[in-house]
Amino acid sequence: MSEPNNNHRSLRAEREFGLIVGGVLVLLSSWWFYRGKFHDARQVTLTLGALLVLLGLIFPKALVWPNKAWMALAEVLSFVSTRVILAFVFFVVMTPIGFIKRLFGWDPLHRRAASSESYWRPYSERQRNPRHYEKMF
Question: What is the 3-state secondary structure (H, E, C) of 18-81?
Fold first, then answer.
């Protein structure tokens, strides 16, 4: 079997880029036209969208560099937004939960237990039943 042509796959990606991004820009500018908003912006987005759709249909090879630039922008946005979202979740959600649990004395590892010869804790009744291992959750 021969390997797929790299050029063919590249043109497919550029065609999809032109049709999808161009189509979204055309739809967005159409919505703005319908609502009577963003007169200057809708002229630019409509022109750019129509050009992308046209190039995607007729000459997708012309969209190689715009597609690469678009993907580079997507990678930068992904890098930044991932860190922002994770920082938000950690500092706004997880940290207050941890503070509240500590405030109420939650200690799941029993780190504040009195020292003794053994730290063994007996199994619960559920864990002593052998059927517990058949369906653990």
Answer: HHHHHHHHHHHHHHHHHHCCCHHHHHHHHHHHHHHHHHHHHCHHHHHHHHHHHHHHHHHHHHHH
Q: Which long-range CB contacts under 8 A does 62-67 form with residues at least 24 apart?
A: 62/14, 63/14, 63/15, 63/17, 63/18, 64/10, 64/14, 66/17, 67/13, 67/14, 67/17
Neighbours of 63 (CB within 10 A): 25
pLDDT tens track for 86-132: 999 999 999 999 999 999 988 888 788 788 788 788 888 877 888 87
- Please give the Cα distance from 137 to 134 (Å, whole number): 9
User: Which string of b and e fits 25-35 if b means at least 16 CB within 10 Å?
Assistant: bbebbeebeee
Is the pTM higher than 0.70? The answer reads: no
| Token pair recorded at residue 103 | 């405030």
Other Cβ atoms closer than 10 A to 23: 15
Which of 19, 31, 26 is closest to 49 using CA atoms? Answer: 26
